[in-house]
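Why do we bother with holo predictions? Because pocket geometry can differ from the apo form. Keep that in mind while you read this record for 2'-O-acetyl adenosine-5-diphosphoribose.
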Amino acid sequence: MTLGTVRGWLRGANRIAVLTGAGMSAESGVPTFRDAQTGLWARFRPEDLATEAAFRANPGNVWDWYAMRRQMVAGVAPNAGHIAIARFQQRHPGRLTLITQNVDGLHERAGSTSVLALHGRLLDDKWLDPPRACCLAQPPLDGRPPRCAACGNLRRPAVVWFGEMLPPEVLAAADEAARTCDLMLVVGTSGVVYPAAGLARAAATAGRMVVVNPEASELDDTAHAVLRGTAATLLPQLLQEEP
Ligand code: OAD
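The structure, written out:
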């Protein structure tokens, strides 16, 4: 299926959904998770860094790893793909629902609003245990991680760790968008992590689902079209206005 065909589908679609994964930000310089050489999960063990048990066992280590990722993301910029999505949303208010597995905040920095961040946000943090009155009464004490001066409750990154639920209202909105869209673009995800990958499968049943990825993904077989190329090259071509 050609780019032109998919552009035609997009023109005819009233309800568009875009589901993005780590490949969306690869050309901004953010590493993906599963690339054999540069992927975060090729270099680090997720069970040591991305679970509640790991944080409770070694909060300083986990906090520092997220601080490193926060710093890295602060030093990069949205790419042409992020910008193409944001501009399309601005030109067509309410027509495109953006769902991301990324925690890097680059969609928002490109100008997208109402981003459904399935896996939370790297730059935010939250209380590890439900906050007591003391936690809310004063700002947390600085540290790695910051803590409540009275009870010791810790601040943790506001991302979804392995074994944790996705934010239910975000998942519900994403599910609704997937089940009611005419067309979903699935950009830069390996399609192995659920429930996110299930959204692409639901969209393929509801309407058309198109994969945008330079490499093979688990969702290719279900897609109505697979466009082999990168987010920053293909999204501007897909989402730009007709001359
Ligand atoms: P992965 O690292 O599993 O997959 C990244 C995908 O992006 C691969 O299919 C690459 O081929 C593709 N890719 C690489 N460069 C690209 C580019 N320039 N343009 C388009 N695609 C490109 O990342 P995710 O699928 O996002 O979860 O991983 C899903 C979840 O697993 C993440 O959200 C994270 C991780 O554990 C949590 O943190 C909860």
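The chain is about 40% helix and 15% strand.
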